[in-house]
Design a protein that fits this description.
The chain has 287 residues and is mostly helical. The chain is 64% helix and 0% strand. The protein is built from ten helices and no strands. Helix 2 packs across helix 6 and helix 4 packs antiparallel against helix 6. The radius of gyration is 19 Å and the shape is globular.
């Protein structure tokens, strides 16, 4: 792998920030600004994070042998960040159930996916990780760019999602650069075809099952039928338009020469990072 294929900024430092959120406060049922739709959206995302991020860690670690020293350090910091994200979303998800939601069906689907993933070659899991890491990065950019994302939300919970978001942006190139290393013997077309097909499969499954999961949670709030579909579709396509706003950043993944750091959005990290300055860990301490 030559330096020409490594587009992660040379001065990027991935810094784990050891923060804990919401341990001493009761979590409101509709914690996201009193909006049941937004709450269900974020809750459904969070249910996937602990086991999903464990898969990301294993997929990246499985291909770290022989990577350049800088990438090796980034992988260590990536692992440390993801471990702390897992810890905080386990705690968050527990508070979701304490607020009265039954997430057992959502959890069961995640377990089914994880069982299937264990049957696949790790290079496929790295490919899927790369696609999902692109999703988390572009979602993070969207959340941080919109000042209304966490409007009227408990500051502690808003801080948790912002903390997660800046670290997703910070390490958004790690899985991709690990993939470039792992597939350095592949042709450019083979690499592009594999990652493009995986992104299409991941996108279909990700949004289909998040949609089903969100409807499950809304049903528990008495929001069902046409009303539930209409309100959820408006949230995704209309206002705030989470899915609509993702289209062009998502489509960029298929362009020749794509790399996550072709879009340098580190200013979003800087705008939030001072909040967590006291929680920064030395990169050398990363797992």
């Amino acid at each position: 792998m030559t330096s020409a294929t490594m587009k992660t900024p040379a001065d990027l430092v991935i810094t784990p920030r050891d923060r804990r959120f919401g341990r001493d406060t009761a979590q409101k049922r509709w914690w996201a600004g009193g909006d049941p739709i937004a709450t269900a959206f974020y809750n459904a995302l969070s249910v996937t994070f602990p086991k999903g991020e464990a898969m990301f860690i294993e997929a990246v670690k499985a291909h770290r042998d022989g990577v350049p020293p800088k990438l090796a350090e980034e992988i260590k910091a990536f692992v440390s960040q993801e471990i702390m994200h897992t810890r905080e979303h386990v705690a968050f998800n527990r508070r979701v159930t304490e607020a009265g939601y039954d997430t057992s069906r959502l959890d069961a689907h995640v377990d089914e996916v994880m069982a299937f993933i264990k049957t696949r070659p790790q290079i496929m899991n790295l490919n899927a990780t790369m696609a999902l890491e692109h999703y988390t990065a572009i979602l993070a950019e969207q959340f941080l760019n919109d000042p209304d994302t966490f409007k009227n939300t408990d500051p502690e919970l808003a801080d948790m999602w912002k903390w997660h978001a800046i670290e997703e942006i910070e390490h958004k190139g790690v899985a991709y650069d690990t993939w470039l290393h792992a597939t350095k013997g592949w042709s450019r077309f083979k690499r592009w075809r594999a990652k493009s097909i995986m992104m299409l499969v991941v996108s279909l499954n990700f949004w289909l099952h998040r949609y089903i999961g969100i409807l499950d949670l809304l049903r528990q709030d008495g929001i069902t039928g046409v009303k539930a579909h209409a309100r959820l579709i408006w949230f995704l396509i209309g206002t705030p338009g989470v899915l609509r706003k993702l289209f062009f950043p998502w489509a960029a993944y298929f362009l020749p020469g794509f790399h996550p750091w072709n879009r340098d959005d580190r200013h979003l990290i800087g705008a939030v990072d001072s909040t967590y300055e006291a929680a920064r860990l030395p990169v050398a301490a990363a797992a």
